[in-house]
User: Which sequence fits this backbone?
């Protein structure tokens, strides 16, 4: 972001430049999206398991609010307002000036704080360690949950062919 | 005329205390945890989220517990809570075409790509009470099969290829929000859909049923019904890009309706649309039918005078919190109002020469 | 832990709930009593915005209010600050709910929304940055004013023209450093 680059500290200029490139932004989008949907118990367990407690200053203390979720008419047409969902957000800065943002679904301030700290650390030299210790296991656990549901759904798929031939009857 | 009177504080406090006791019920029976309501009464939770217009399963479960299972009271609690939240913004429209489907059926195409996936449905149950549930017990694990990874395409896409179904005009216009601006009629389809998705399930169901029975002529097929989760994405102003801020479970229903054509439109299939928070398929189908009935004007159809075609009637009466607020307020003290009516009726009776009788109430 | 003073992220309210409630009360009071000047300085926006104008923006704006940054106010720093603290979109004068800048930068008045007869409130509020703000100059009369008040207005004739549109029209805050005054459309103006 140009804004932070112009006015930020030296450290911040480096980190934000990393996040600004297409690939960097895409990667950050990826981990922030993962953190937003992470189950609370698992995220907090992984975070405390990682064992870091970096000192930081709040830029925005955790606050819970709502966002208006939109849908599209007929699935593909003009947008309409569907209803709100709860979101908790916060922003903080590490001692080296790295800024971390936390946006998580629901009302947990602890989750938002952990997400912001992880977002900040992912922009520092600790990135690969954080990815190994937190993001990868998180992504894996969430994928397993999703696969389990999809596998159950797949088992309820109707096979008309079998029904018509009546092999079992 | 309204006149303030004081009194009853002690009675009210004691009523609240008794309410709390009654809510708990027999203390020799284990207390319900909010998580139990969230997990085991999830369809009630879904209804409270949809009509409370706030997606948060834990809050909806808490509201149900607090309301002693009165869902409209629970919806009231959620509506009151949501007014205390600052609004951070609006999301990008959810992409239901990318839904991870738990259920996906079509009544129009047997062999739809992606298949007919029943999901955890009541449809083929025998509606016989299952007394095994009165005892606690392990549930056998549901069978699994090779999961599908690719997105499931919308059924209407196939019809669209032939232009045989009305197209949804593409637009990125900012939709109206009935929680922010006062209603005015005629309203747009954006406001109608917002009103229907948070409308009372019973009311919307009744209206939808009336269209099927002939009050507004539209013969609907469920082109597609899908239930599953979609990611919710929002632009974050301070980041300058969008991230996923969560995921929600949705039920989407697209109806395909016969349409012989009108002065302005060629014969083709037309569409009704329902999209509702949670697993709420009765509501989503009802919403789609009423949405279609309300579209008579844009399709050049006749106003048949049916309730489901009357936008002002539908939108003014679909909100159960508005309705119950006005309905239930008449049980609150109206002593002065009634006193003046009493005087008036007595006066009219005197004028009509009716003999004065002693009022037992006096 | 203290709040950082990083330019885009810092300079917000130290205690958002309390600070915004106090600021809102000050804004409401000056609007209710045209000519009155009050302190309003709990935010520290990036230059060139005054503390009073910055505090007003943080108090009154959110993602649903469009803000027009006139002239020298439209800097990347200020856009970033506004985005982080309020989420308010930056828009053109004709779509603005709030506009901020010096009088010369905000001119002309024609493009701003003046409301409709059904919804006179769907109009813009202009935050005018002033070099000086004092209870001298044009004479004000109308609701919220006992007899008359005086205020150093940037252009009494143009503002009197706006008052003629009542119940439609624009409302104004005047800001200078950490001070604020206001002029609603309901105030009649005569040259002092």
Assistant:
């Amino acid at each position: 972001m140009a804004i932070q680059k112009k006015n930020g500290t030296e450290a911040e200029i480096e980190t934000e430049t990393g996040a600004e490139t297409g690939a960097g932004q895409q990667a950050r989008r990826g981990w922030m999206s993962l953190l937003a949907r992470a189950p609370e118990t698992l995220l907090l367990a992984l975070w405390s398991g990682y064992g870091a407690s970096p000192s930081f200053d709040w830029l925005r203390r955790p606050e819970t609010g709502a966002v208006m979720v939109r849908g599209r008419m007929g699935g593909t047409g003009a947008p309409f307002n569907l209803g709100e969902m709860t979101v908790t957000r916060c922003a903080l800065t590490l001692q080296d000036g790295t800024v971390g943002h936390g946006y998580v679904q629901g009302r947990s301030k602890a989750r938002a704080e952990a997400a912001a700290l992880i977002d900040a650390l992912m922009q520092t030299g600790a990135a690969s360690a954080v990815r190994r210790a937190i993001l990868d296991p998180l992504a894996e656990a969430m994928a397993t949950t999703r696969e389990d549901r999809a596998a159950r759904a797949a088992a309820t798929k109707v096979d008309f062919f079998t029904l018509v031939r009546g092999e079992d009857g | 005329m309204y006149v303030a009177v004081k009194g009853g504080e002690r009675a009210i406090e004691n009523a609240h205390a008794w309410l709390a006791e009654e809510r708990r019920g027999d203390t020799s029976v284990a207390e319900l945890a909010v998580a139990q309501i969230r997990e085991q009464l999830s369809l009630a939770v879904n209804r409270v989220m949809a009509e409370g217009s706030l997606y948060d399963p834990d809050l909806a479960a808490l509201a149900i517990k607090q309301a002693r299972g009165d869902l409209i009271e629970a919806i009231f609690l959620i509506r009151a809570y949501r007014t205390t939240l600052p609004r951070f913004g609006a999301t990008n429209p959810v992409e239901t075409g990318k839904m991870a489907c738990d259920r996906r059926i079509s009544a129009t195409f047997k062999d739809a790509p992606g298949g007919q996936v029943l999901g955890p449905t009541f449809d083929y149950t025998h509606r016989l009470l299952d007394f095994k549930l009165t005892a606690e017990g392990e549930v056998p694990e549901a069978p699994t099969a090779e999961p599908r990874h690719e997105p499931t395409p919308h059924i209407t896409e196939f019809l669209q290829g032939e232009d045989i179904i009305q197209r949804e005009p593409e637009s990125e216009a900012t939709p109206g929000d009935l929680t922010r601006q006062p209603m005015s009629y005629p309203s747009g389809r954006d406001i109608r859909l917002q009103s229907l998705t948070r409308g009372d399930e019973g009311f919307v169901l009744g209206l939808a049923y009336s269209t099927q029975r002939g009050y507004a002529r539209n013969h609907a097929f469920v082109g597609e019904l899908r239930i599953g989760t979609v990611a919710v994405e929002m632009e974050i102003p301070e980041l300058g890009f969008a991230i996923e801020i969560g995921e929600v479970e949705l039920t989407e229903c697209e109806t395909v309706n016969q349409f012989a054509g009108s002065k302005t439109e060629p014969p083709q299939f037309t569409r009704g649309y329902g999209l509702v928070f949670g697993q709420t398929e009765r509501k989503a189908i009802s919403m789609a039918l009423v949405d279609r009935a309300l579209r008579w004007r844009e399709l050049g159809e006749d106003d048949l005078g049916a309730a489901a075609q009357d936008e002002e009637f539908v939108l003014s009466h679909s909100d159960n919190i508005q309705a119950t607020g006005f309905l239930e307020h008449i049980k609150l003290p109206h002593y002065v109002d009634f006193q003046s009516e009493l005087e008036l009726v007595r006066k009219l009776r005197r004028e009509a020469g009716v003999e004065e009788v002693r009022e037992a109430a006096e | 832990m203290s709040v950082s003073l990083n330019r885009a992220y810092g300079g917000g309210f130290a205690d958002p709930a309390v600070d915004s409630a106090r600021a809102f009360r000050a804004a409401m009071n000056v609007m209710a009593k045209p000519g009155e000047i009050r302190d309003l300085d709990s935010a520290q926006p990036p230059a060139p915005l005054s503390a009073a104008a910055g505090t007003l923006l943080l108090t009154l704006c959110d993602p649903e209010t469009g803000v027009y940054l006139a002239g020298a106010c439209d800097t990347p720093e200020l856009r970033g600050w506004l985005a982080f603290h309020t989420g308010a979109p930056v828009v053109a004068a004709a779509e603005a709910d709030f506009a901020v800048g010096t009088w010369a930068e905000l001119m002309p008045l024609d493009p701003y929304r003046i409301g409709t007869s059904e919804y006179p409130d769907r109009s813009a509020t202009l935050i005018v940055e002033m070099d000086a703000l004092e209870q001298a100059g044009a004479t004000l009369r109308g609701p919220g004013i006992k007899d008359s008040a005086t205020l150093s207005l940037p252009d009494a004739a143009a503002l009197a023209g706006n008052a003629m549109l009542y119940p439609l029209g624009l409302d104004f805050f005047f800001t200078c450093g950490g001070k604020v005054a206001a002029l609603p459309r309901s105030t009649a103006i005569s040259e002092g």
Summary: DSSP finds five helices and nine strands in chain C. The interface with chain A takes residues 1-4, 6-10, 12, 16, 46, 76-77, 79-80, 84 of chain C (CB under 8 Å). Helices of chain C lie at 16-32, 51-60, 76-85, 103-106, 156-163.
